[in-house]
Amino acid sequence: MISSSLSPVFGSLAVAGILAVAGCGGSSGPSASGGASRTATSSAAASTAAPPARVTDGGSVDAAAVIAPVVAAIKAARSGHATLGGAMTGTEDFELSKGIRAQFTVRGAELQVISTGSVLYLKGLPGITKWLKIDPHGSSAMDRAMSSVGDLTKSSDPSTMLRMFGAGKATKVAAESVAGKPTTRYRFVVSPAAYAKAMGKGLLANAVKHPITTEVWVGSDNLPVKATSTVTVGAKSSTSTVLYSDWGKPVSITAPPASEVTKTPF
Predict the structure, then answer these.
(1) pLDDT at 59 over 50
(2) What is the CATH number of the domain that holds 231?
(3) β-strand partners of 110
(4) Which of 78, 119, 155, 161 fits a disulfide with 12 by CB distance 3.0 to 4.6 angstroms?
(5) Is residue 139 part of a domain?
(6) Is the predicted pLDDT of residue 188 greater than 60, yes or no?
C-alpha cells in the first residue's frame, strides 16, 4: 500500500484515502492537528490572484475562485513539507517538477517512497530489502502491473488539483485559527466523474465510485495550512488529514544509489 499525501495538493488526500481503504480495511478519523509555517517565497505571486467573493459562513462560493489562487501560491512556493494523519501516518518533503521523498507507517509497517519524475522507488515491501524501482514506462510485467502508481505523481501536479476542485461550487465553512494562524475553511465535494477526469487513465482514476468530501484551511497567503479528505470505496471509508509547513524551503530529493536499487523481479 502506498499513501499519496505524496504531494502538496488536495488531490493526493483522495489517493491516500483510496489506498488506505483498499489496504487497511476500515474507516479512520483524522489524527493530526496543528499548524504550519512557510517562507515568504510565494507571497507576491499568490497576491496577484483574485480572491473569491465575500460570502457568509455556510454560503456557496465559486470553486475556481478559491482554488486558482491556491494553485498560484503553491506553484510560487514550489516546495514544502506535509504530515499525514489517519489510517496512514507519515511525512513528506516535496518539490514541484522534481519529486517527493516520503516515509509512511501503515499498521506498524514502514514504507519509504522516493519519486523522481515518473520513476518511483519503494523500500519496505515484504521480501525486498533494497529499493524497488518502478518505471511506469518499463517493459516488465511488474512495471506494467504497478504503472498505476504513477497516479501518485500525477496527483502532485497543481493542474490536477485545479481540474479536480475547480468546477462547480465550494462551501465557505468558517474563519478558523489553526495553531494560531488565521485561515478560512472551505469544503469541496468532488464527484467520481470529476476525479476520474482529473486523474486520467489508471487504476486509481477508476477506484472512486462515491463523492469525495475535502475540506481545506487556506491562509491569508493563499497557501493551504491543513486539509482533510474522506473517501469511500465499497462499504469502507477513510479520512486522511494533511498538515502543511515549510512552504518555499529548499528540499533535497535524489534517487537512491544504484547499488541499493533492484529492478522488478519479472
Answers:
(1) yes
(2) 2.50.20.20
(3) 105
(4) 155
(5) yes
(6) yes
- Is residue 159 scored above 70 in pLDDT? no
- pTM, to two decimals: 0.76
Q: Dump the DSSP string for the chain.
A: ------SSSTHHHHHHHHHHHHHH-S-----------B-GGGHHHHHTSPPPPP--TT-EEEHHHHHHHHHHHHHHH-EEEEEEESSEEEEEEEETTTEEEEEEEETTEEEEEEEETTEEEEE--TT--SEEEE-TT--SHHHHHTGGGHHHHHTT-HHHHHHHHSSSEEEEEEEEEETTEEEEEEEEEE-HHHHHHHH-SSTGGGT--S-EEEEEEEETTS-EEEEEEEEEETTEEEEEEEEEE-BT------PPPGGGEEE---
Q: Is residue 3 part of a domain?
A: no
In tens, the pLDDT along 203-221 reads 555 667 888 888 999 999 9
- CA distance from start to end of the chain: 20
C-alpha cell of residue 123:
523500500
Angle between helical axes of 158-165 and 192-199 (0-180°, round to 10): 160
Residue 4 lies in a domain: no
**Domain that includes residue 40, residue range:** 11-263
Does the residue 1 lie in any domain?
no
Work out the number of other CB atoms within 10 angstroms of the CB of residue 220. Answer: 13
Structural domains in the chain (count): 1
CA-to-CA separations, 109 to 1, 113, 162, 260, in angstroms, rounded: 10, 13, 33, 20
| Residue 235: CB atoms within 10 Å | 7
